[in-house]
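Holo model, 4-hydroxy-L-threonine-5-monophosphate. Inputs:
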Amino acid sequence: MIKRIAITPGEPAGIGPDLLLEYIQQAQHQQLIAIACPELLKDRANALGLPLTLIPFDPTSAPEANQAGQLFYLPHDCHSTQAGVLNKQNAPYVLACLDSAIDGCRNGDFAAMVTGPVHKGVINDAGIPFSGHTEYLQDRCSVDKVVMMLATEGLRVALATTHLPLKDVAQAIQKDSLSRVLSILIQDLNTDFGIAKPRILICGLNPHAGEGGHMGREEIDVIEPVMASFDPKDAELIGPLPADTLFTPKYLDEADAVLAMYHDQGLPVLKFKGFGRAANITLGLPIIRTSVDHGTALDLAATGQADIGSLATAIDYACQMSQARV
Ligand SMILES: NC(=O)c1ccc[n+]([C@@H]2O[C@H](COP(=O)([O-])OP(=O)(O)OC[C@H]3O[C@@H](n4cnc5c(N)ncnc54)[C@H](O)[C@@H]3O)[C@@H](O)[C@H]2O)c1
Ligand SMILES: N[C@H](C(=O)O)[C@H](O)COP(=O)(O)O
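Output:
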């Protein structure tokens, strides 16, 4: 069955449009719909020397897989864009594209949404508070909690906290919130990844997992009690383990996922292993959202040098997850 997948290319000055235009040069098994500015797509295709046939998306027609070089689109207009040069006037455009994708997933027009990279800084420069798609999707879908998980071949890393200044992380590791994160992780590994009783490695927050309370107490006061509150029939929770040695084959070979306490505890390892072949997946949503593992790479926009591997991985995950939910 042909699935409809919405794709938001993200920041117009970045590599998101390039990646999509490169990706659709192959015929697809699904219907990919760009939610984007058609003039931007045409200009970027010209700059990259890529053939492009744009077809307006009609949600009332039967799903139709893209032929090589074809792209269905749902239009939003952006300001004229120079590749590699941010323009804060485009921030509302970036968010409007996301809103259309979310609405289309919620009303059943799309089976999933795949997001290209946005530039968080320029959206804030435009006066719009924005810390990431993950938090934006949580708000727009009116759920109390979502979980960011990045996945590549052989490793899944979920995060207990997402886009927070480091100084605020320890305060954010609280029992209620950590418990919700673990529940969502267990539930979605089960439903979307078919893992009945996931084996999850849990990082400590502090060096050496707190060294028995001498180097921080979050392991004893928060992480261990939360782990103990889960039924061992639902998941095998291992930890809190020192994060510096958790990411070694001895532990990882037997694990379905790692739960890291903060962004730069888990993601550098994941990206060292799989940058360009990983996807970012938002767990806990009523819709399916996957994303690339990289940012806007302004230095590479319109050069033809950007690697499409992560976009391909994100689309693959979106398709697999939407099949799993049928
Ligand atoms: N999914 C997202 O929306 C997302 C993810 C990560 C970062 N960002 C945002 O992107 C902006 C820039 O972030 P950054 O500079 O830290 O990271 P970045 O990923 O844009 O760039 C880091 C390095 O990786 C290279 N790179 C990135 N993607 C590549 C690709 N597909 N092929 C080849 N090389 C690639 C870049 O050229 C650069 O050298 C920030 O605003 C950040 O918040 C967005
Ligand atoms: N933390 C993500 C990463 O490093 O890939 C990135 O900032 C994107 O996050 P959102 O999906 O929340 O925008």
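The chain has two domains: 4-143+285-324, 147-271. The chain is about 35% helix and 20% strand.
Archived with the compound record.
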